[in-house]
Amino acid sequence: MYEKGINEDLLKALGERIRENRKAKGFSQEKLAELSDLHPTYISHLETGKANPSLIILTNIANALEVHICDLVTDKNKVAFDKTLLDIQSALDSSSEDQKIKIQSMLEAVKGMLK
Question: Both 94 and 58 in a single domain?
């Protein structure tokens, strides 16, 4: 089970993505509520992380916004970052010990230049 703070953070992040997508479409909360068959107050609660929507509600909102449900529930920046880390790990896994030592030295040199 997740800790309360983690759940709150997830709901706030979800609400932010709903708001961003709503604004990108030029919809008011009232318009999104109408299109998704919800009450405007509930949309407000979603966007502020005060409501925990069901899968059906998320699907209705995604359909109203004409986005995939993944666009509402996934942090694209984190996914891209995680994929980058996995790509780096894969490259390191296929490197020899000598190559790993050289790569580490190169990273430390680049990091030093960025100071």
Answer: no
The predicted structure's pLDDT at residue 77: 66
Q: What is the DSSP letter of 29?
A: H
71 exposure class (CB count in 10 Å sphere: 0-12, 13-18, 19+): middle
Mean pLDDT (the chain, rounded): 88
The DSSP secondary-structure symbol of 26 reads: T
Taking alpha carbons only, the member of 8, 21, 7, 16 closest to residue 61 is 21
Q: Is residue 35 domain-shared with residue 53, that is, in the same domain? A: yes
Between CA 63 and CA 27 the distance in angstroms is 13
82 in the same domain as 26 = no
8 A C-beta contact, residue 62 and residue 71: yes
Return the SS3 of 77. Answer: helix
Shared domain for 96 and 42, answered yes or no, is no
How distant, in Å, are the alpha carbons of 16, 93, 102 from that of 9?
11, 34, 40
Least confident of 36-45, 79-88, 92-101: 79-88
Q: For the residues 55-70, what does the mean pLDDT come to?
A: 95
